[in-house]
Design a protein that fits this description.
The chain is mainly alpha-helical. The chain has helices spanning 8-17, 26-34, 38-45, 53-62, 67-81, 85-109, 117-123, 127-135, 144-151, 155-167, 194-209, 227-249; strands at residues 171-174, 177-180. A two-stranded antiparallel ribbon has the order 1-2. Residues 105-112 have low confidence and may be disordered.
């Protein structure tokens, strides 16, 4: 966790070492992301050069930082670049304050958090809020970079969503890993957000149709039938939904999938 560090170089070097194969090739990836020579990256993290705040801001996105983590990272860089002892002292004080605030935040998040109407509106504004939350339960997809790559989403979007999920207890953090939290989301059928929730995932279904993946299943079956058959089909669908839902709750998390069923009466 970044708030344990008071030196940005040590933090980045440790972050690299925790990657597979002890981070082999990571500095090259960083140089390519920042658009600077790999020699310069080596001079920064293995030598005496300091990183500019502009490059630090960009690197923070690559590292998958939340907004508060990014601010802290920039303070660490600013302290390293400070030209006077007085300025270093001011920034050291701010670092200590940020570390204390991070501890307080962690304590608050362990308590019950109210999921306000405003927060619900944000959560149901796009499919990737619930998508990122659910995907974080899959082994190996427990950080912003992995989620960004797997879900084909910008890293800054994923970082912003993770910070929201952590704030409301929908995800939790274990060290540097993000895990799906114990809290659940539920919308009443009368909520004005229900239609938005359905639309988000149906748009995702339409997107998946274009990929023509043989493991996917899409079916549209308009039909004319009796009133009794209409009611019986609805009952069968509800029973099936419950069966599938119960199965997913007791299963291993390996894939992210979505079930969309539309059964509606036209006449």
């Amino acid at each position: 966790m970044i708030f344990k560090y008071r030196c940005y170089k040590r933090y980045v070097n440790d972050w690299v070492l925790r990657k597979p194969k002890k981070g082999r090739g990571q500095y090259k990836k960083i140089s390519e992301y920042l658009g600077i020579n790999s020699v310069r990256v080596s001079q920064i993290f293995k030598g005496n050069q300091e990183m500019s705040l502009e490059f630090a801001h960009k690197l923070s996105s690559y590292l998958g930082h939340s907004e508060s983590e990014m601010e802290y990272f920039l303070i660490l860089v600013a302290k390293a670049r400070a030209g006077t002892a007085e300025l270093k002292k001011v920034l050291e004080k701010r670092i200590s304050q940020a570390q204390a605030e991070s501890t307080d935040l962690k304590t608050r998040l362990s308590q019950d958090v109210t999921f306000s109407e405003e927060a619900k509106a944000i959560f149901y504004s796009n499919w990737y809020y619930s998508g990122i939350r659910l995907t974080s339960s899959i082994k190996g997809l427990d950080n912003a970079n992995a989620l960004s790559e797997k879900l084909d989403l910008p890293i800054d979007t994923v970082s912003r969503v993770i910070e929201f999920l952590l704030k409301y207890g929908l995800c939790i953090k274990e060290g540097e890993k993000v895990k799906m939290g114990p809290k659940r989301t539920h919308l009443e059928s009368s909520s004005p957000l229900v239609s938005r929730h359905h639309q988000n995932w149906r748009l995702k279904a339409i997107e998946s149709m274009q990929k023509q993946n043989k493991s996917n299943l899409f079916y549209s079956g308009p039909m004319s039938l009796s009133k009794s058959a209409l009611q019986a089909n609805r009952t069968d669908l509800v029973d099936m939904i419950k069966k599938l839902s119960d199965r997913s709750l007791n299963d291993r998390e390996e894939h992210l999938a979505c079930l969309n069923i539309d059964w509606f009466q036209i006449l």
